[in-house]
Amino acid sequence: MKRDIRPDELIDVAYLLAGRGSGPGRPRTIRLRRAISSAYYGLFHELVDWATWKVVREDARRNAERWAMARWYQHADVRRVCDWVVAAAGHARGLPPGVAALLGDSSTSVPVPAELVDVADAFRKLHEARQRADYDHQFGVTKVDTMMLVDAAATAIDTWRAMPDCYHSDIFLTLLGGPRPAKNG
Questions:
Q1: Among residues 61, 119, 147, 161, which is most buried (max CB within 10 A)?
Q2: pTM score, whole prediction
Q3: C-alpha dihedral, 43 to 73 to 172 to 2, nearest 10°
């Protein structure tokens, strides 16, 4: 039986690997590293799920199409969009002109919602931590830091789900990556 990758289950696994509820003590380093990856993927899949639902809509008969489309989203592209959101909220210069026009910049009167900035910033931090956890042999990881990252992913997912549907959330989902079937189809 095929079914969605469930972000909540990834977060649950991250907490389990990080040792939540296990009392004092330090889980093995590899468990902490995997917890960070699982937390990151929970947030990544949450955002990609929403982006694919925007296109395919809620129709269980089209899950295979949604799942194929989800493979088109690239981690670096999602990270870049999150960087843009944080930059736009901080009125940074240097955003690509089309992005500045869509997200707004210091010259617009409609600010990027704080909730979206929080989600984007959490994704950026988790992306960096996941890269280090997966590839940096010298990455010093602690249970406390890992739990903070897992909490950040869980909070970002909750924040995203509670955020009202608005112009900025639609633009964010549209910018996340989108069709690259030739590469990952």
A1: 119
A2: 0.88
A3: -60
